Recover the amino acids of this structure.
């Protein structure tokens, strides 16, 4: 496959290149694409040097698939240009996620809905991906009525400048402020920007994207997103009210048998998922699985994943894998 990676020099773009290599995707030609200020830079991929090209040059190269991680504005303008050439676009921004004509894909859940005509495919928000990977098999078995979600999100989700802010604060160095407040040794209940209703864009993404991926608009969802001073990944505390009752052992067995999930649930031995230990891993980790005794048919879970991996890069590359296995790109 000829693969273009748009935004190849960013945090997620760098991870996409790593995952393409780790998952042994057969890349016959890599087309690294970035903004004009990065054009001409040399990047290394699988031991070979590649020169970064412009968006216009990327389109002209006519790749089989283009993985976008360059922000919504770039995706809105350039994803259709790539698609016009017959290229499949897997977009990691929020530009297309809620577009009624675009699929929002998590491969473990709904890749089977993809067709040859889906030239622009949306990758969900990082927090949404890890959430629905754990929720989908339980929704299928017990049907979810309501979710109460609190996320604890890594600074890497904001980008490299946020990481620099935290590192500067830890070192006692003055520097640019990405957040409205000091992030080190702090928690900021502010993800994205605030809407008029008091919710943030990170919170509304969780609500609407979860319903779209699970294909169920009846689920009641409320969310609070918090930025915390860690790098390894995003964490989420989730309270799940089901329509049907469950046995806790059955819940654990369903999760254990579901693809992409690793159970870490031995609290008496201090074993539970933590962002420090999921960094660089491609799975979704689930623990603190317990019944909510305050009301019937309700479960609590703690879900952690590397937001740059399964929350972004890994999921996009897995979508490319699915496109290939379905015969839409690469060797048939």
């Amino acid at each position: 496959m000829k693969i273009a990676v748009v935004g190849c020099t960013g945090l997620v773009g760098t991870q996409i290149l790593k995952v393409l290599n780790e998952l042994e995707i057969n890349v016959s030609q890599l087309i690294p694409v970035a903004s004009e200020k990065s054009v001409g830079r040399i990047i290394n991929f699988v031991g070979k040097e590649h020169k970064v090209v412009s968006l216009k040059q990327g389109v002209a190269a006519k790749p089989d698939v283009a993985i976008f991680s360059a922000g919504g504005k770039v995706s809105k303008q350039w994803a259709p240009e790539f698609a016009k050439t017959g290229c499949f676009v897997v977009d990691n921004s929020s530009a297309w996620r809620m577009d009624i004509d675009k699929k929002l894909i998590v491969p473990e859940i709904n890749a089977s809905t993809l067709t040859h005509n889906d030239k622009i495919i949306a990758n969900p928000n990082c927090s949404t991906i890890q959430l629905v990977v754990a929720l989908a098999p339980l929704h299928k078995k017990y049907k979810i009525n309501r979710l109460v979600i609190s996320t604890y999100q890594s600074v890497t989700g904001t980008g490299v400048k946020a990481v620099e802010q935290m590192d500067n604060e830890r070192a006692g160095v003055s520097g640019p402020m990405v957040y409205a407040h000091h992030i080190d040794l702090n928690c900021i209940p502010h993800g994205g920007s605030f809407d008029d209703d008091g919710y943030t864009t990170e919170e509304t993404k969780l609500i609407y994207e979860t319903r779209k991926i699970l294909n169920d608009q009846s689920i009641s969802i409320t969310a609070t997103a918090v930025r915390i001073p860690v790098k390894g990944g995003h964490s989420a505390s989730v309270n799940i009210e089901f329509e049907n009752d469950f046995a806790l052992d059955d819940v654990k067995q369903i999760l254990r048998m579901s693809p992409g999930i690793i159970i870490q649930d031995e609290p008496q031995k201090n074993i539970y998922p933590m962002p420090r230990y999921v960094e660089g891993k491609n799975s979704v980790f689930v623990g603190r699985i317990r019944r909510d005794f305050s009301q019937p048919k309700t479960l609590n879970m703690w879900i952690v994943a590397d937001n740059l991996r399964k929350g972004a890069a890994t999921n996009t590359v897995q979508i490319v894998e699915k496109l290939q296995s379905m015969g839409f790109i690469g060797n048939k």
About this structure: The CA atoms of residues 16 and 22 lie 10 Å apart. The chain has two domains: 2-124+312-325, 127-307. The first helix runs from residue 11 to 22.
